[in-house]
Design goal:
The chain is an all-alpha fold and about 210 residues long. It is built from eight helices and no strands. The relative contact order is 0.13. Bound molecules: zinc ion (2 copies).
Length: about 210
């Protein structure tokens, strides 16, 4: 009986210790993700990844038509990844990324980004994975397009929360800004920031109400 009690006490303290570690890591993630320094570094890392893949691809040789097609495919693939992560990960309250995105919805002008090292860590992993099926020439340019699109997404989203619609010079910009404003005003619609293609295809597009 005594042994059983001791085993239960050890098990409880191990669970408490594990819970405390998880809480500390979650807190650290939140502190990094909401910091201004991380926000700036995330842009720098995304740019560095796109530039590095472009540089390596251009020095590896190969047809420019293949390079251009790979670049476009990478950017197009990003548009779906952007939609999928935003819809199924960022709007899922149970995930840490969901918590972070909820903070963006509550305070849209406050800096929030995934830890800057996430691109630097995922870039070589993507490269390794994709070169198992495709040539390095194709993969270099596809990932250059992917990270360039990721950077464009970050810049566009930042501007959407920094410049007011009425201050925009072009109608297409006002329309794009308004589509994202609908996302912030209504649950479950307009997840695409760079394009509304996937929203239209997957039934989550909501048009902007005409005034
Ligand atoms: Zn959202
Ligand atoms: Zn937003």
């Amino acid at each position: 009986m005594q042994h059983l009690r001791q085993a239960r006490a050890t098990q409880t303290s191990a669970l408490e210790a594990r819970g405390a570690i998880v809480d500390s890591l979650r807190h650290l993630f939140r502190v990094i993700a909401l910091s201004r320094v991380n926000y700036g570094l995330a842009y720098a890392t995304d740019f560095a990844c796109a530039a590095a893949f472009g540089y390596l691809g251009s020095h590896a040789g190969g047809a420019w038509t293949v390079a251009l097609a790979s670049l476009c495919c990478g950017a197009f693939a990003f548009s779906f990844v952007e939609y999928a992560l935003h819809r199924w990960a960022f709007h899922s309250g149970s995930l840490l990324s969901g918590e972070l995105h909820a903070s963006h919805h509550h305070h849209p002008r406050r800096p929030s980004a995934l830890p800057f090292c996430s691109s630097a860590v995922s870039a070589p992993a993507f490269f390794w994975l994709l070169t198992q099926f495709m040539s390095a020439h194709v993969v270099h340019f596809a990932l250059c397009g992917f990270f360039a699109a990721y950077l464009s997404y970050g810049v566009l989203h930042h501007l959407q929360h920094s410049i007011r619609i009425k201050d925009l010079p072009f109608q297409w910009m006002r329309r794009k800004w308004a589509i994202h404003a609908v996302h912030h005003g209504r649950e479950g619609v307009n997840f695409g920031v760079t394009t509304s293609l996937w929203d239209r295809l997957l039934g989550t597009y909501r048009a902007v109400a005409k005034r």
